[in-house]
Amino acid sequence: MQSADLAFAYIGSPLSAGVGMELGWATALRKPVVLLVDETVAHSPMISTLEEVSPVLPIHFDAGWTAQALRHAVVTALDWADTSVIYPESAESA
Fold it and tell me: pTM (2 decimals)?
């Protein structure tokens, strides 16, 4: 997680312990977090408060997505993360 540029997670219900742990690590390291969120599912308070400690991009997701739609979501998420991260080398030159 330390070398990751972002965390990308599908948020199921109940939230799996592994996903919860990875999201905890990501937010502790202030990594951007992309969440595939199914609006028909109730989510834990942890999910609704992630954006208080890290940049979060929720993407509304359902099981009917095509591979092309999922690919578009991933590309969008990567573009968003690229603009959400302040790279140390760019901060020094500013």
Answer: 0.77
